[in-house]
Amino acid sequence: MKPQRIAAMDLGSNSFLLTIVQTGIEGIRTLHDSCIITQLSKDMDEHKNMAQESITRGLAAVRQFEDILTKYEVDVLLPVGTAVFRKAANSQIFLDEVKKILGTEVEVISGQREAELSFNSIAKDPIFAGTPDLCVVDLGGGSAEIASTGTSGMTLSSFPIGAMAMKQAHVSHDPVTDEEIAAITESVRNCCEDLKAGHRSVVGVGGAFVNFGGYNLGALNLEAIHGMSITTQQLDMIVQRLCAATEDQRKQIPGLEPERAGVIHVSAIVASELMRVLGVSQFRVSVKGLRWGVIYEACDASRH
Fold it and tell me: DSSP readout, 131-151?
């Protein structure tokens, strides 16, 4: 593998992530990994336009990333955009500004492509490599992607049930009401009713799953969370605790990122119902996700 520094940037509906790696004959070594909560899809109007405040937050995050890219003298930059850019009517305005900052086009990927990259981030990870009957659930702010393998090959699906999307559609109280929880649960079930149940090996990726692991640990220790098993019974307990709390109270819970307090309870509701639909009693957590699928793909391409 040609030695080079590769940066993958995941621009999502709720958070922006940047990972920089060094590749070479010894494999892949992480140089930098960071996440900025941007809430880009927050307060999107009835015409599906991102709010100016959200755009300002997002561009500020990209400028922070640009400083980091310069510091590490990156050779290859691979930025991708997900659900918010597929949905927003004014996404091109934002993307044009990002190109001015980075000097590189952002690839806005389809939901199926997002599912594939998230799957590859797990399938090529030494911790999970070789896992049979693998199902990867990537829960984001705007959408949820599910990729699975089985006797009939790979299935890639994308559903508009991300935490911020579900909050905007169904939640107006804090703490959330039983009726709002039921509405979110019904939306997830209706969207995903055709999913195959009974997977043996489910892995959750994305910031929400990482925070569920942090909740169980009482600390956001990424090394300890990567590969962690969480039972659906534990997840249901997380749902109960988070939904009974106000946003200010959720900010104080050890192991959770305070910046996610506005939507983490909704993420937990969605994740819990997804696990019920998939028919599993436990799942494992990856702290890598989409951007690592991008990195692995770039490394594979450089070998040929």
Answer: -SSEEEEEE-SS-EEEEEEET
